[in-house]
Structure formats: structure tokens, C-alpha cells
Amino acid sequence: MAEKATVFKADLQIADMDRHYYQTHALTLARHPSETGERMMVRLLAFALYAGERLMFGKGVSSEDEPALWQKDLTGVIERWIEVGQPDERDIRKACGRARHVVIVGYGRSADPWWNQNCDNLQRLDNLTVLRLPTADTQALAAFASRSMQLQCTIQEGLVWITAEAGAVQIEPQTLLRAAGDTSAKG
């Protein structure tokens, strides 16, 4: 019998001074058995970076046709497709054809080799933004993962502070590639 996803609840208070977005979100995250705590928390961070009323978690690792997060307009057109990790270049090109804006949030030790291998081809995609998160920061963020989380996220001048009962982590996303016309990219 296949293992079921574990449900995590997060109350996330966002104060994004760069975008003038201030909101509290009660979120439910399903963590697939093959997903690490680090990846789940990076998904949560990606939500905070691009939060909006229609941003939703996708099926993620359990579905090849859905990203980690996405935002659709009222007609169902995909405005933003957000993936975390190091997706295959072919999948990124496919996403860029389906969405107005695609964001890749790279993290982990393999993020730099992945970028070095794919950067030339990815730079041809004008609706793609690629961010890279420092490994030490995402590992520290993973320590905050618990079945019930109370988190505060402050974003100012491209810096992100995540505070939880267990402490605080400062993250500085690095923008490796910015989509044409993207003013929301961090770093």
C-alpha cells in the first residue's frame, strides 16, 4: 500500500515591504513521502515571496503536470508557475509555454551545477525568473518544519526573515535570471 502524504498546517504572517503586501495566510501543505522537509519549507518560502490571493499549492512531486505553486486568473489562464528545486530544462520550456511567468526557486548543493549546465538554454526564455537560495539558509529553514507552524515572514530590500518559535533565519535569494518585465524578482 502506498504511503499517504503528511499534512502540515502553517499560519504565515507576511510583511512584504518591497511589494506592500501584508497578509496572514492559514495554509495546508501536503508533504509527499518522497519530499524532504527542506523542499516543503522552500515551497512555503516561495509562497511568501509571491503571495497573492490566488496563489495556490499544486500537487507538486505527485504530479508532473502541476508545479509546486501556481496562480491562475479568473478565466483559468496560468499567470505564474513556480517550481522549486532543479527541474528538467524540457519541463521548464513546457511551463514557459503554458504560463505568463515561470519562476524556478533553486536550492541545495546541486543548484549551482544545475544552473551552470542549463543557464545558456534557459536565458533564451523571456518569461523565466530563476532564484537561488543559499544551502545553509534552506537547511536552517527546514528545522522549522513541524505539523503545526506559526511563522512570520518579513521581506525588505530583497532580504527575507523567517521567524518561528524555534528562532529566525535570514535568507537572501539570489536572482540568476530575471524575466523581461519582472519587477517582483527578489535579490
Summarize the structure in words.
Helix 1 packs across helix 4. Helix content is 24%, strand content 39%. It starts with 5 loop residues before the first strand and ends in a 10-residue tail after the last strand. The chain is globular and about 45 Å long. The chain is built from four helices and eleven strands; from the N terminus they run ββαβββαβαβαββββ. The longest helix is centred in the first third of the chain and has 14 residues, at 37-50. The protein has a single domain (6-177), classed as Restriction endonuclease-like alpha-beta roll fold (Roll). The chain is α/β, with parallel strands linked by helices.
Summary?
By secondary structure, this protein is an alpha/beta fold. Helix content is 24%, strand content 39%.
Count of β-strands: 11
Number of domains: 1
CATH superfamily: Restriction endonuclease-like alpha-beta roll domain
Uncertain spans:
none
CATH architecture assignment? Roll
Number of DSSP helical runs: 4
* N to C succession of SSEs: EEHEEEHEHEHEEEE
Spatially, the strands of the biggest sheet line up as: 3-4-5-6-7-11
Assembly type: single chain
Structural class, from helix and strand content?
Answer: alpha/beta
Gyration radius over CA: 15 Å
Secondary-structure blueprint:
Blueprint: E1 6-16, E2 21-31, H1 37-50, E3 55-57, E4 69-72, E5 78-84, H2 89-98, E6 99-106, H3 111-122, E7 128-132, H4 135-142, E8 148-156, E9 159-164, E10 167-171, E11 174-177
Parallel strand pairs: 1-8, 5-6, 6-7
Antiparallel strand pairs: 1-2, 3-4, 4-5, 7-11, 8-9, 9-10
Helix pairs in contact: 1-4
